[in-house]
Design a protein that fits this description.
about 270 residues; alpha/beta; Rossmann fold; 2 domains; binds NADPH dihydro-nicotinamide-adenine-dinucleotide phosphate
Length: about 270
């Protein structure tokens, strides 16, 4: 019987993870089945335990269960501890190992796929929620000259910066603090694009040659990418590469094999 994996979320109907992992399994010759499971908001733990009892070997976790998955894990990797959230579970006897591959997926998409080295760069990270927090460790690992977190609620950006101060040159503040500052890499980790909105960025934050990256993905420009285009950002990217790279990293955690992400990204972009 094929080994079973899944993604838990709510909603989960539009998840691309089953297609991504089916493509990885076909590419690497791994015998596994991967499905999407709609977990009830009040019983995420029950859904996980039922999947384990049915022989599940591992799972991805998406909105809104990443913090609950963190609490449910009996053991956690250091990157999950740092992120305060878990997007990858590995079931192994009685152990539930919690990992977080989101930040590594973002860093790999930026540095490998988009060939945007982080060393010496001025980075602006918009948002101070779960996605921003998961990205901070891997971004600071890249050795930027400065990393500024800007958030609609500035106190959350300042608190996050204080938590990561030991890992690199990070500070936090409001959008108004960005006036007259320029950045080489601007990452939108807010959920504003989901509502068709744009964080209240001042003009002129994109330095010459800059990359604008929206963690959100979909058809066409998000409001953030449309703004970046008008503002003259040199390059634009959405979060599809991050999605595929975090999945490749999870696949490696489960199977010990790293699939090629390029063909799967082409497949999804063509679909
Ligand atoms: P959270 O709910 O944890 O955080 C949301 C953040 O967005 C907060 O900082 C919030 O600010 C800010 N925000 C929300 N609406 C607005 C607005 N209209 N204007 C300005 N700021 C706003 O969400 P997540 O961190 O989990 O997710 C953020 C985004 O990242 C989502 O779009 C998600 O789809 C994407 N994502 C993509 C992944 C990928 O693989 N590509 C992986 C994970 C996430 P405040 O604190 O003031 O409320």
């Amino acid at each position: 019987m094929s080994d079973r994996y899944c993604v838990f979320g709510n909603p989960i109907g539009h998840s691309k993870s089953p297609a991504i992992h089916a493509a990885f399994a076909a590419q690497t010759g791994q015998d596994l089945r991967y499905e999407a499971i709609l977990a009830p908001p009040e019983d995420f733990a029950g859904a996980v335990y039922r999947f384990v009892d049915a022989g599940g070997r591992g799972a991805n976790v998406t909105v809104p269960f990443k913090e609950e998955a963190y609490r449910l894990s009996t053991q956690r990797t250091s990157r999950a501890e740092l992120a305060g959230a878990v997007n990858t579970l590995l079931f192994d006897n009685a152990r539930i190992l919690g990992d977080n591959t989101d930040g590594a997926g973002l860093a790999r998409d930026l540095t490998v796929n988009l060939v945007c080295p982080l060393a010496g760069k001025r980075i602006l990270l918009l948002g101070a929620g779960g996605a921003a927090r998961g990205a901070l460790g891997p971004l600071l690992d890249g050795g930027p000259a400065a990393l500024l977190i800007a958030n609609r609620t500035p106190a959350k950006a300042q608190a996050l910066a204080a938590q990561f101060a030991a890992y690199g040159p990070v500070s936090g503040g409001s959008y108004a603090d960005l006036a007259k500052q320029r950045f080489d890499l601007v990452i939108n980790a807010t959920s504003a694009s989901l509502a068709g909105e744009l964080p209240s960025l001042p003009s002129g934050v994109f330095a010459a040659g800059s990359l604008a990256y929206d963690m959100m993905y979909g058809r066409g420009d998000t409001p953030f990418l449309a703004f970046a285009r008008r503002q003259g950002a040199a390059r634009l990217a959405d979060g599809l590469g991050m999605l595929v790279e975090q999945a490749a990293e999870a696949f490696f955690v489960w199977r010990g094999i790293r699939p090629l992400s390029g063909p799967v990204m082409s497949l999804l972009r063509g679909a």
